[in-house]
Each structure stands twice: as C-alpha cells, then as structure tokens.
Amino acid sequence: MSTDSREERLARRVADLYSTDTQFADARPIEALTAAIEQPGLRLPRIMSTVMGAYAERPAVGERAVNLTTDPETGRTSVELLPWFETITYGELWQRVGAVASALADGQGHPVQPGDRVCVLGFASVDYATIDMALVQLGAVSVPLQTSAMSMVA
Q1: Residue 63's CB: how many other CB atoms inside 10 A?
Q2: Which of 77, 87, 121, 134 is 20 to 30 A (C-alpha) from 140?
Q3: Would you list the DSSP string of the chain?
Q4: Is the pTM of this model over 0.70?
Q5: Tell me, what's the pLDDT at 152?
Q6: What are the backbone dihedrals phi and psi of residue 119, each rounded to the nearest 5 degrees, phi first?
C-alpha cells in the first residue's frame, strides 16, 4: 500500500502532465496574471477584462459541432452531432461579449442600465455565457431561467 498522500500523487501527476501533454502545458496559468487579479478592490468587470486579454490567444469555450439537415418531403430540420467541437479563443469570446454589451446598452429605447435585472432563458452554451458576461460588464443582474420556465407562464 502506498504511503504517498493524495496531494503528493496529485503533484506528481500534474508535473507529469506538464512535461508530457502539450495541451495541458499550454493551459498553464500565467502567474503574473494571478497576482494582478488578486489585488484588493478590483471589480469583477475589470478582472474579467484582464483575464480575457491575458489569455486572448488561448481556447476558451467550445460547443459540439452540428450539421442541420432538412427533409425535403416534410420540411422538418434535424440536428446531427458531429464528432468534434468548435472552439473560440478568449479574445474572440471577449469581442462577442463587447458586441452584446454594446447592443444591450443601446437597446432601441430600452437600454440595459447598471442594476437592471435581465431574465435569460436558455441552457448552457457559448451564447448563454456571452450574454451572462455582457450583463456583468453592464453592471446588470442576470436572472437565469430554466428552459422549462415558459411552460409555467403559458
């Protein structure tokens, strides 16, 4: 039976992955960034901006690739899951967040203001994360609703 503690085994495993797994090694945290975002008094929007800028070239989020096909006889569209994921970088995600925040702030007569509550109906996805982060940038409060919530309203 091994006398190594769980922490020692984990430390060895992490060291092994850093030396043998390029993808793992490329995801190593930037120590200077960690120090920068741990400064007292930083607000969440500033922390998010700092992290997104520092990791701009790294993959951030992804979704399963899909193929939409429409049956010519019925007109019904179905989704086929493909065997890979489509990813975007932190920089690309941050551009999307900025575009959504800008659109929400301009809002066609109903701009989102700091402190506003905004209900978001959806499920975990890149788009959902984008909207959630855009609301943080605007100082608004995201109120997540389950996708089944609409059946309760009707």
Answers
A1: 13
A2: 87
A3: -----HHHHHHHHHHHHHHH-HHHHHT---HHHHHHHTSTT--HHHHHHHHHHHTTTSEEEEEEEEEEEE-TTT--EEEEEEEEEEEEEHHHHHHHHHHHHHHHHHGGG----TT-EEEEE--SSHHHHHHHHHHHHHT-EEEEE-TTHHHHH-
A4: yes
A5: 55
A6: -80, 135
Considering only CA atoms, which of 124, 123, 122, 126 is closest in space to residue 61?
126
What is the residue type of 75?
G
CA dihedral angle for residue 116, residue 100, residue 119, residue 117, rounded to 10 degrees: -10
